[in-house]
Amino acid sequence: MSILTDSRASAAPWHLWVVGVVSLLWNAAGAFDFTMTQTRNAEYMSAFTPEQLDYFYGLPLWVLICWGIAVWGAVLGSILLLLRKRLAVAVFLVSLVGMVLTTVHSYVLSNGLEVMNDPFALWFSGAIFVVGLFLLIYAGNLSRRNILR
User: Fold this and answer.
1) What's 106's DSSP letter?
2) How many CB atoms are closer than 10 A to CB 95?
3) Which of 26, 81, 109, 122 would bridge with 88, disulfide CB 3.0–4.6 Å?
């Protein structure tokens, strides 16, 4: 039975490796940012104003949990993609939901955009969403084509 299963699985296309590695690096940068912020790394956080630091350090627990799920879920999703596991689709979905909830807090439920005082922050949040959505769609497509097992 395993021979039949293995013969039905499609070979991994070259772009899976490119997308997988690039997404892992991209998501690792997000995990680094999360870790440096949560550990209050003085050198890393020195780039922010006192108001921005107060904002980051005053985030509600539910936002921190959603942010952590978004970041670490994206890292795990990229690893699962490289391992060609179908679970990547669900993990990318959960990560995207965490990211959306974090963004809703920042731009709807609080004054995050005002505190950041930088239009780039809004643009970058949009870029993060687009990348997350792309990874979800990409993994779903590979799963439907039996490239992910």
Assistant:
1) I
2) 26
3) 81
Provide the 3-class DSSP secondary structure of residue 35: helix
- pTM of the entire predicted model: 0.88
**In sequence order, which residues have a C-beta less than 8 Å from that of residue 66 and are 6 or more positions away?**
98, 99, 101, 102, 105
Rounded CA separation 44/39 (Å): 10
Task: Count CB neighbours of 135 within 10 A.
Answer: 26
For CA atoms 16, 70, 104, 42, give the dihedral sign. Answer: negative
Q: How far is CA 49 from the centre of its chain?
A: 25
Reported as a single tens digit per residue, the pLDDT across 41-85 is: 999 999 999 999 999 999 999 999 999 999 999 999 999 999 999
Give me the half-sphere count of Cα atoms (radius 13 Å) on the Cβ side of residue 55: 18
Residues recorded for the chain: 149
| Contact (Cβ atoms closer than 8 angstroms) between residue 88 and residue 139 | yes
Q: Which amino acid makes up residue 58? A: G
CA angle 125, 43, 106 (to 5 degrees): 25
